[in-house]
Amino acid sequence: MNHRLVGRMVGAGMLAEWRQVLRAPSMLILAIVHALVLMSLVLLFGLTGSRAPVDLVMEDSSRDAQSFQQALAACHHSFALTICDASTAARNLAQARVSAVITIPHGFSACLAQRRPVAIRVDIDNVNADLSEDVRSALPSAIVAFGQARDPAGLTLSLVESDRIGHDTGFIPYLAVSAFALDLLTISAVLAAVAMCRDREARLDRFWERSPVHPGVLLVGRVLASLMLAGLAIMPALGLVLAIGIHPLHPWALAACAALILVCGCSLGVAVGAVIPQSTLAIALILGLSLALYLASGALEPQRFDGEVIWYLAHASPAYPAVALLEATAHGLDITPEPQLLNALSAVGWTLAALLFAVWRFPRRQS
Amino acid sequence: MTSFLRQAALLLRMEGVRYLRNPQILLLAMLPPASMAVLVWALTLNVTQEPVALVVEDQSPSGERLLQILVSDTDAYRLMVTDAVQAEALLHAQRVAAIITIPGGFAGAAATGGGRVLLDLNNVDLDFSDDIRRSLDRSVGIFNGLPLERDDDDDAPGGAPVPSPIPEARKQVPRAGADPLPIPTSTPSVADGNPYLLEVEEHDRRQTDVSFLAYELVPVIISLVLNMAMIGTTVFGARDAATGVQRAWRTTPVAPLAAVIARIVMSSAIAISAAGVVILCCWMLPRGLGSIPHPALLVATLSLAAISAAVLGTLIGHLPFAPRALGLGAMVLSTILFLLGGAFCTVAMLPAWLRVLCALDPMHGAIDGLRQALFYPQPSGWADALLPLEALLVLGLAGLGLRTLWRVRRSR
């Protein structure tokens, strides 16, 4: 085969794809919008994951009451406390603006001084089991912390914690990085699938047989262009990740992993495009599957914590190594029992398998 | 009249045949809700439970007591009682998120007020790390004498019992119309030996008897209706415009609007049928939806959601863009509407500006309306919940009418 001719054809394919995208940029714009929407909405989920909005009614302003207020505020990211009066708190609870109202009653300090019991009243809007349980478990935790600080002499047992990782990673930064991995995969897959379908949808594939090179060569250029476009389309989402305040621990490694995931997503899109000739259906398939793949990828927490069955199933998702690689490079977290090298090899394996599948399934003759 | 009915039947049949010839559209429209159903199922597995290894190095009565407190808190922990070496291996392999150790000499230390329970935590992210910290604090508090007891009567996510940190007698559920913050009328008694001197008096705003699975299935059903009604109408509309079928309608005696209405009716019927099948299956499941108090409201909500989504899809399908861009646009819009609708987050907990956006989202109304119809004995908020959906329908129909009028004038 004439290598110069092949090179020219690849270049021509790239140029054609660029021109088509620039002529009708709606796909590119929608890809950017989709990446941002996906990330924003995943972060919405994270917003409700911790710090339940709670009104605190302080009917006692003594030092003890203030210490208890501090114990509540410091209780494992449990409460976003707002101090207000009882009527405002009642109104906020009725209007579902807060998930609970905690009341420190009159005579709180005096009762403690006289070693008399005090009831801490909590009114919970128990519409959501997850959030209600957080409030229910956090209040005893605050009481234990308050008791430990105020009068440890009466306590027989205390907790000694040692953490495996030197820093805590917030839920939103964790989610943002996993959502970024999903964005990389889906956007590159969508754009590559569209590039694969474009000629066949426009019935240009009837000219493929007259081409001096294999039609795959023509498509390689288109797919390479779509890979570059995906790299561009992901930039606003990357900007959002950085705007949240995430400072990657290993920025160059993160960039390399992101590039690998882009290539992996692109090859998956090529495989989908090789099987499904209609771009609308290919897009629907990729976006429809993306949430399921994302959820089985350690996106919310290390996947193995959810049980062995789900963990084994997660290995069938290309998002599993992708999320692991990005969490490792951005936050320094190992969220899979497998080493990161194996995760990188897994991403390469997905890429090669998808490309081989595409070569096998690609229609060599005109449709 | 007969010819009109015949014409309508023919148009409906044509749309039905179109769906039958393109079943992949329906299958692809089902994919997002199916994946969300998987998410809901996965969430029911670990809403509050975290896998934890427990190492007991002290077999004294005190150690045994703490062990019982930990073991009985089945909603906070999924415990594996093991030895230290095995626990370390489990933590390393991420089969557990933490190791709780009751160390040797625990009883002696506890007797002198220096008892320690050790927590070795894989603090990958704060969400589950804090759950474990809070739960263990609670266990330590109970051991020390904090009067928190378990209540196994309520339904928990996925059907498991909910842990209650308060005695049943202290858990007060207000009746409808009651003062949301009644003044406590009695001083609660404290169990002897409570060193904290504090105890919790909980008042729940509602009697929750809906399982987490059933509650979260509602957004999945709405997503199914939204996708099936919207994506089909968008794709077929865009294809008609791209292939010139829309122009061909002008040469037939059928009014273009009639064809559009037939498509909306058929898409809505398919979406409602699919949702009906899912609801029937969920109703038949042992831990599913249970009895449906307001079937008429259920049908009305589904119909309104389906028709609104179909109208919206039809409008999108008529936009002057390539079918692939419209397909992607419909998917993006569907994702935004669905997730802003409060599918997997509690809207009340979001920032104020986001709550305003959510309130304008018709799907938020659809999800709320369906929950009222399925779970509430007195669905007093049903009509209000559906207002954004009704507004969308009116605006969509007005848009379709204006577009048809514009096309008729242009063709003249």
Summarize the structure.
Chain A has helices at residues 3-23, 26-47, 63-73, 86-94, 108-113, 129-150, 171-201, 215-233, 235-243, 251-275, 279-295, 308-314, 319-331, 340-361, and strands spanning 52-58, 79-83, 100-104, 118-124, 157-163. Chain A is α/β, with parallel strands linked by helices and 367 residues long.
Labels describing this entry:
heterodimer; A: 367 residues; alpha/beta; four-stranded mixed beta sheet; 64% helix; B: 412 residues; abc type-2 transporter like fold; 8% strand; elongated
How would you describe the overall organization of this protein?
- The complex is a heterodimer of chains A (367) and B (412).
- Chain A is α/β, with parallel strands linked by helices and 367 residues long.
- Chain A contains 14 helices and five strands.
- Chain A has a four-stranded mixed β-sheet with strand order 2-1-3-4, sandwiched between helices.
- In chain A, helix 1 (3-23) packs across helix 8 (215-233), helix 2 (26-47) runs antiparallel to helix 7 and helix 3 packs across helix 6.
- Chain B is α/β, with parallel strands linked by helices and 412 residues long.
- Chain B folds into two domains: 50-178 and 186-204, abc type-2 transporter like fold (3-Layer(aba) Sandwich); 212-411, no CATH class.
- Chain B is 60% helix and 8% strand.
- Chain B has a four-stranded mixed β-sheet with strand order 2-1-3-4, with helices on both faces.
- In chain B, helix 7 (212-243) packs antiparallel against helix 9 (256-284) and helix 13 packs across helix 15.
- The longest helix of chain B has 32 residues, at 212-243.
- The radius of gyration of chain B is 28 Å and the shape is elongated.
- Mean pLDDT of chain B is 78; it is low at 150-191.
- Classes of the chains: A alpha/beta (367), B alpha/beta (412).
- At the A-B interface, helix 2, helix 4, strand 4, helix 6 and strand 5 of A face helix 2, strand 4, helix 6, strand 5 and helix 7 of B.
- Strand 5 of chain A pairs parallel with strand 4 (115-121) of chain B, so a sheet runs across the interface.
